[in-house]
Amino acid sequence: MSGREVERTDDGRYIVVDGRRWRATDPAIPEGRRAELTKVLMAWRREVGRTKGTDDEPAARAGVQAAKVALGERGTPWWEQTDDERRERWETDVPWPARDGGAK
User: Fold this and answer.
1) What letter would DSSP give residue 24?
2) Angle between helices 57-70 and 83-91 (to 10 degrees)
3) Which of 19, 68, 74, 92 has the greatest number of beta carbons closer than 10 A?
4) Which helix (H) or strand (E) holds 62?
5) 3-class SS at 61?
6) Collapsing DSSP states into helix, strand and coil, what is residue 89?
């Protein structure tokens, strides 16, 4: 999150923003891969905004979902997965929106 310090629950599984609890990104993801997945997530979020109310919005929302699952923020909680399951999750290919040309 934008460089500011984020409050975490004692177990590290959640962050707290404005009093609301959100699942934290899997801390085991290698830094380079985490950064890449975060960029993909932000690109998909921009795509959701661009396609709001159109037939393309569901695909954009699916892209957000895929990125958030890869980061461990949705789907099976990362603390309930084996190391191999976690690695497989974050190594899964999450495509970039076509509008971004797949560029990283």
Assistant:
1) P
2) 140
3) 68
4) helix 57-70
5) helix
6) helix
Tokens representing 30 are 């290698």
Q: Residue 95 and residue 82: Cα distance in Å, rounded? A: 24
Beta pairing partners, 23: 14
Report how far residue 3's alpha carbon sits from residue 53's, in angstroms, rounded to the nearest whole number: 32
Alpha-carbon span 88 to 98, nearest angstrom:
24
CB 65 within 8 A of CB 74: yes
Coil vs helix vs strand at 1: coil
Q: How confident is the model at residue 1 (pLDDT cuts 50, 70, 90)?
A: very low
For 23-44, what is each residue's pLDDT tens digit? 999 999 999 999 999 999 999 9
Residues constituting the chain? 104
d(CA 41, CA 66): 8
Instruction: State both tokens at 51.
Output: 């396609």
